[in-house]
Design brief:
two-stranded antiparallel ribbon, mainly alpha, 53% helix, globular, 549 residues
């Protein structure tokens, strides 16, 4: 859809006709300049409007209800199908019908298995990433990414230290800093690492877990969120049991889901409800409303240090606030006393069959764009082990066979922003501008979602923001002051075919659909100068193919 709209804007009907007419030449220049200045935005607006119109065809959600958090196509994909009413993409990678016969055209997708892996575990694969993977092979590359400590990343960490000087301070020291400065530290650390780190799979996994064990910065103080971010990031490839415990034993979660107010005399069920629905067994995991209250009883007394202390808001268990007695949760008895009771509940939930299925399927949708097949789910269950071995599970989900059969996913705003800057090789000079100027306006700033389920991973939720996307693309290819612009000098001496090849290699790993290459080359015809080269890059990034990975 987008490629057709853009092509219509960029290509007057006589584009392939005689070029010796001055009037025709001027007409073409005006049309193209207009496209880049405003017409392309209009095209994107049309796409957004179409997506919104189609979204209205889907079942309406109740006010305040959580948007569906599915595979990125706006409907439940199983074996490559898209549910009725999901948005349709044509002219690029994914196409399909609507109504009673929706489909994903699996013949229009990224083909190379190595490159598909890169796209899934990397925000914006670069030629250097491709070269490394091809040199050491699929399996070795995946293993290396799952062991981030083995990857030399000092250049990135130097950037992090520059923009996030408090990142490694103790919790007590963090509490002594101004709130606004701590906020900037975690935002900048997320942005810098997502763009510049060589440990890209770690950043993708951190994105997944921070959404899964979500807390927001409106309710949770800055020092607590920064420490929570550090704690979760250290266990991205460890075990699910440890991640679950880190989340539960942290002030950020106790504050965010109000468990600090849950006592023997006044029960608050917010954390209990979400630990079942979102963190472990899932909404269809077999629990009842009565089970939620039993879980809430088990976690009474899990709280935070009071205000005024040097380590205020740090997690603490308060025995006097705990409700004594045996808990029975989904027919399982927990006779332990004190904090040990909550710990026992966490241990049990971490390996519950419903938890394995829920987390395994959620990870599969995150990386493959569809639900886990019965065969894959069986492998995930076997790989889970006694503690929820995250690396073992990822080896199954990211195996060559599964990656080959994965379907394209729509980039969430953060994915588009981080990946674009990374692939263009840009040097950020003003990170706050990326944060407030783009991530905030695209409604995906770190820790700013308004519900505990984390940011949606759904096409239908993000498809309406296309105009913001094109504005971002235009800004990072213009003199915005946020970045040092990409050096396009080498492209000036190339012919148009070589320029398209350069764009294809840098942004699409050599797999840009031929139809999209044609309209980029049409734009370049007769063009010269740095501005024209950057405009061509913007045009490629505005195309529908770049919105999917």
């Amino acid at each position: 859809m987008l490629s057709r709209l853009v092509e219509d804007v960029l290509n007057p009907s006589d584009l392939d006709g005689p070029e010796n007419s001055q009037d025709q030449s001027n007409s073409r220049k005006i049309s193209r300049r207009g496209a880049l200045a405003g017409g392309l935005v209009a095209a994107m607006s049309a796409v957004a409007g179409a997506a919104n119109a189609q979204s209205r065809m889907t079942p309406q959600r109740a006010p305040g209800s959580r948007p569906p958090n599915n595979n990125g196509f706006g409907g439940g994909v199983s074996g490559g199908g898209v549910s009725s009413g999901s948005a349709v993409y044509s002219g690029g990678l994914v196409s399909g019908g609507s109504g009673n016969n929706p489909a994903v055209n699996t013949q229009r997708t990224w083909q190379d298995a190595d490159l598909k892996l890169l796209r899934r575990i990397n925000y914006g694969p670069t030629p250097a990433d491709v070269a490394e993977l091809k040199a050491i092979g699929y399996t070795a590359y995946l293993e290396k990414q799952m062991n981030p400590a083995s990857i030399e990343d000092t250049a990135c960490e130097a950037r992090v230290q520059q923009f996030s000087p408090y990142l490694y301070d103790t919790f007590v020291t963090l509490n002594q800093q101004p709130w606004w400065s701590i906020t900037g530290n975690w935002n900048d650390a997320v942005i810098v690492r997502s763009i510049y780190s060589k440990r890209q799979l770690q950043q993708r996994m951190l994105e997944f877990w921070m959404d899964h064990f979500y807390v927001d910065s409106v309710k949770v103080p800055g020092p607590v969120i920064l420490d929570y971010y550090r704690s979760i990031s250290q266990e991205c490839f460890g075990t699910f049991r440890e991640l679950l415990k880190r989340s539960a034993n942290h002030g950020a979660m106790m504050i965010y889901l109000d468990n600090l107010f849950s006592t023997a005399t006044l029960i608050n069920v917010n954390y209990a409800r979400e630990i079942l629905e979102l963190h472990t067994v899932g909404v269809n995991g077999g629990y009842t409303e009565a089970d939620i209250y039993q879980v809430a009883d088990a976690f009474t007394g899990w709280s935070v240090v009071e205000d005024g202390n040097p380590n205020e808001n740090e997690f603490v268990f308060k025995p006097s606030l705990h409700m004594p007695g045996t808990r029975t949760i989904m027919q399982k008895s927990f006779p332990q006393s004190g904090k040990a009771q909550g710990d026992a509940v966490l241990d049990w939930l971490a390996t519950h069959p419903s938890t394995i299925k829920y987390i395994g399927n959620k990870l599969t949708r995150f990386f493959l764009g569809k639900d886990a097949s019965p065969a894959l789910m069986s492998k995930i269950q076997s790989a889970w082990g006694a503690n929820g071995d995250i690396k073992a599970v990822l080896r199954e989900i990211l195996s060559r066979t599964e990656i080959i059969n994965s379907v394209p996913k729509f980039k969430r705003p953060n994915h588009l922003v981080y990946g674009s800057i990374r692939q263009l090789g840009l040097n950020l000079t003003y990170i706050s501008g990326i944060y407030s100027g783009h991530l905030v306006k695209m409604n995906m700033a770190p820790f700013k979602w308004f519900q505990p389920d984390g940011y949606p991973d759904a096409f239908e939720y993000w498809a309406g923001g296309m105009v913001r996307r094109i504005r971002f693309v235009q800004e990072i290819n213009s003199n915005s002051g946020l970045i040092q612009l990409m050096d396009v000098s080498a492209m000036l001496s190339m012919d148009d075919a070589a320029r398209v090849t350069e764009i294809n290699s840098r942004l699409f790993l050599g797999e840009l659909p031929v139809t999209d290459q044609v309209w980029i080359r049409r734009y370049l015809k007769g063009k010269s100068g740095h501005e024209a080269m950057r405009s061509a890059i913007s045009l490629a990034m505005a195309g529908s193919s770049y919105q999917w990975y």
